Task: structure prediction
Amino acid sequence: MATNIVWHKSSVGKLHRQELLQQKGCVIWFTGLSGSGKSTLAYALCQALYSRGKLTYVLDGDNVRHGLNRDLAFKVEDRAENIRRIREVAKLFADAAIICIASVISPYRKDRDACCALFPERDFIKVFMDVPLQICEARDPKGLYNFARAGKIKGFTGVDDPYEPSLNFEIVLPEKGNNITSPYEMAETVISYLEEKGYLRA
Ligand SMILES: Nc1ncnc2c1ncn2[C@@H]1O[C@H](COP(=O)(O)OS(=O)(=O)O)[C@@H](OP(=O)(O)O)[C@H]1O
Ligand SMILES: Nc1ncnc2c1ncn2[C@@H]1O[C@H](COP(=O)(O)OP(=O)(O)O)[C@@H](O)[C@H]1O
Result:
């Protein structure tokens, strides 16, 4: 941990940036099994908000692991560090008044809870992709479940590595009791939540 470091304040703060963008910075965190639809929904939401003149940025687990987190694998401590770095970057985006959309498995409850603690203003919105393993595995667009079942990938979430559900997700999709399952309709559900909570205005 570095010492003798001092935070520099700016005359232009988060409220000024929110006024400029006519939106409130926040983090929408899509979590769930591989293949549950996190990335598809994240980018559908990004497009829908762009069409409404709102500025977003997607931090996708796969993508961030090509650059910032290219040094991390999937051991427990690597996944924890992956989430720690992504939540710190997401916090900077939210402070910039951007609607930051993260799509990461983030399987461990303590890692997700640590994210919440970083956003006391409750600007951290957890969205659980409630899609059963059987459906995710049937989709298997990258063939990774197939490799995992064949023992070619060790420690694959849902196969031989855990996903720890939480009881305090802000949004669970698809919603129980309705048959809204298309990415575009689910994106509208998230947008309704953002509108209701005031994130789509300064
Ligand atoms: N062992 C193992 N377990 C789970 N996932 C694996 C693994 N190895 C590679 N992949 C691919 O990496 C993507 C998950 O990266 P994340 O950064 O979202 O994972 S985590 O939050 O650090 O658990 C995930 O992408 P998505 O399918 O988009 O979730 C996988 O395709
Ligand atoms: N709402 C949905 N309904 C049906 N198929 C979906 C849905 N969302 C995503 N998919 C499909 O499921 C697969 C995994 O989607 P993806 O967004 O990559 O999931 P994740 O990011 O959670 O791994 C892809 O083939 C995608 O086309």
In short: The CA atoms of residues 11 and 17 lie 11 Å apart. Residues 23-197 form a domain with the Rossmann fold fold (CATH 3.40.50.300). The pocket of adenosine-5'-diphosphate (ligand 2) is lined by residues 32, 34-40, 103, 139, 141, 181-183 (CB under 6 Å). The two ends are 36 Å apart (CA to CA).
